[in-house]
Amino acid sequence: MKNKKIKLLFFSITIFCCGSSFSAYDLTYQYAKGDGGLRFSLLEKMANIANIFIETGTHKGNAVNNAKLFFDHVYSVEKERSLYELCVNKFKDDENVHLFHNDSSIFLAEILPNIPEKIFFWLDAHYGLSSTPIRKELEEIKNRCIQPPIILIDDIRDFSKTTNYPSVKQLKQKLLSINKNYQFVLLLDAALAFEKQLGLTVSPVLQACTTSYFFEIGAEENEQAAIEAEKIISLAEGEEKKAILNSYKVFKEVAPFYFWAGLILLNDQKYNEAKHFFIEAKKRGCNNMRIDSYLNLCSQ
Question: Does the domain spanning 2-15+230-299 belong to CATH 1.25.40?
């Protein structure tokens, strides 16, 4: 019977806190970007922990423009001279903004030994799928950062696509070599690594999406943890539910975003819509054995 919903496949569990207020956690399922740059709410939380913001890949200065409102000092490096000069003019009156024209790893090697404060990094100096300095950047952070930093890395969807990038599994391993106590969450297309002892609270839905994503792309191998994560995702509510259902619109090639939408719609008894999203997830490479079980539920 269709009214048995998703519990035909999921055994009965109690989900604590999933129905709590969206604002009850420091970190919830939402895109790191927003408000014309990086999201104000994220920057505000990070600035309560770290008073230095360092960005690789200034581009047009959108992240700098937001970060300068929250951090004591903002440092950003850009390799493209025209973009660097554009931002120098744009931020010429901002005393807490410091811009550099250089290779990002050289910039980090030069500046990090002189910064004793805690740092929030935004690593975004990728060049499409052709190349990324992320390996060298993380090596410099590992070797030269004085305090354990908070690290946010953009464009996670591009990792594992090409040998020019490390896989997400390799990226996690590299981050753990910087700090073995790092916890990871995915803010749609950006990966955030932070120390567990910082006390940042993570919503069950966000942690579940992170676990599911890592499993689907081969960065984790614990299938039981993935199954538990799928249960939590299916029960998402409020703003997190809305954000999950809209994720595929932002990144149309990311298979897990379609998979998660299917889980929610199946639990809502919207079987035809759920079937569509499961099929789209399979087209994009989401081929776990459970997805066929979910498709069968849609057809009962």
Answer: yes
